[in-house]
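Bug #2210: token dump truncated for Ribosome assembly RNA-binding protein YhbY?
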Amino acid sequence: MLTGKQKRYLRSLAHHLNPIFQVGKGGVNDNMIKQIADALEARELLKVSVLQNCEFDKETVAENLVKGTKAELVQIIGNTIVLYKESKENKKIELP
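Reproduced locally. Full output below:
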């Protein structure tokens, strides 16, 4: 689990990132979870945006992504979800 201080640090790093995935009408599926997991392995920190036409609320989408990718939820801001997962091979982010 992330501490408040670590989450603040990750939020500051995520601030300039653009969402690289969008969750639309179909919600979260296995293929999307696999792609996000791969992207997390490469980047450690990423944003996912929840589109207006998504049938699920952003909290449910975030919960499904966290469960599926075993990542940490850093924050939900507007319709954007920020996820963090420590990379096994490409560790870049040193948490405080």
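Output looks complete on our side. The mean pLDDT is 96. Marking as cannot-reproduce; reopen if the truncation happens again.
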